[in-house]
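Re: Re: ligand-bound prediction request (bumping)

Still looking for help on this. To restate: I need the protein modeled with iron/sulfur cluster bound, output as structure tokens. Inputs repeated here so nobody has to scroll up.
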Amino acid sequence: MGINVEQPADAKQLLKHNIILTSIEKVLNWGRAHSLWPLTFGIACCAIEMMSTTNSRYDLSRFGSELFRPSPRQADLIIIPGSVNKKLQPLVERVYNQMADPKYVIAMGNCAISGGPYRDSYTVLPGVNTFLPVDVYIPGCPPRPEALIDGVLKLRERIMHPERAVKVSQDEQ
Amino acid sequence: MELLERLFVNIAGLARTLMAGWSLPNSIIELVVLILGIIAIIGLIIVDAIILVWLERKIAGFIQERPGPNRLGPAGVFQTIADTFKLLGKEDVIPRSADRWVFRLAPPLVFVPAIMLYAVIPFGKDMVPVDLNVGLFYCFSIASLGTMSFLMAGWGSHNKYSLLGGMRTVAQMISYEIPLLLSVLGVVMIVGSLNLSDIVAAQKNVWFIIIQPVAFIIYLIAATAELNRGPFDLPEGEQELVAGVYTEFSGMRWALFFLAEYTNMVATAAIAVTLFFGGWHGPWLPSWMWFFLKVYLIIFFFMVIKWTYPRIRVDHLMHFGWKFLIPLSLANLLLTGVGIEIYRFMRG
Ligand code: SF4
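Reply:
Sorry for the wait, this slipped through. Here it is.
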């Protein structure tokens, strides 16, 4: 425990020396936040809303996120739009593992958050956070495209200000 | 105007006189000027790619009746810069079963021939980096090297989709190289030279698009197929092949492929301008401005085509190439030959 007390001071010292590195991190975070390319990946009815988000009426491309990448290697964001059942879970996990870091997860719709209407079914998982680190939850059955755009913007805020996310979790404790 | 016209030539001249003042040997001066030229060309390529990616997304938006990227900077011009930073920070994934060296070498090897094309293009009056007397021949032999690296990318990834995509790319690029070359031969027959500067000089009075309209159309179609752009973007047809050859590449490796595509597109448009649109000839404006204006017009055309037409099927692609474009370009060659003979006969 004694060592642990010393460490924060050390870390602060290090931070002072590496101030250039932190500004590089800031620039990279700015890039990451403003060019979130989602994976072409749909599961259930929520996927229909996800598709219409990129169409002319809602146009996700205004925020630089219309480039849906077919290959997980080039995608930064996986949107889970629908209910994941036990048969599908290993595949979703594999696709997630194939993505290159840094990668983000959005749980779209009640099914992805908690199992939604199928929560009591013996085949459906109660939410994707049972096996994936979810960054943003978008409630709704299905959430409207505006809600998805809002979710992407929330994720952007979270990437730009990592310190805020930490603060919230500390407050909760 | 005169100053603008001679801007780049004067910069090179200034560098030469400056170094002559330091009494450096001639060979070193030439070397430094050459390196300066290379740096200028690479800068041009990168700036071009950043602008073109943004333009492509804007044009896609324009055609689909939506605004396109518009949050970062005026009309979203900084979008590509954000993308570049993100790609720089991505993890570099190399699959365990991949053929490491082939996999690593493929992206730079796609990019190198794309840059080498710029060596012989006359960007303006007296602005040819290297004035080769076999310029056109050099262009097409270098451009066909790119095929190899696509096969390397497909093979090295050790992924069935990559390999299929690589095979498709090779098949497509080899079949469309033939009509591409045959269409260009008409111009060569008229000028009687393979030197790109000579070809530009021959178009002082009349552009070759007027004498060789069929050749121009064949060139445009075959060039679109060579660039793997829509409607001929089968190698990355995501409905069938995930992302084709690009499937296993992440971060900057993938970005290099993309950079090479845009570099090739500018080079192809530049060759089209040199061969059919009078190169840098034009009134009032400085010659290099004319050149880039024409190049960007052709690129705009490429982009509109990509976002307007659906992808064509692979067997239709082959039929179209072998059974239609090649006979047509041969017929064009024959007509050109007859035309030249008649012209000579009339002049006596
Ligand atoms: S949340 Fe509703 S709309 Fe979305 S996948 Fe589940 S049932 Fe379908």
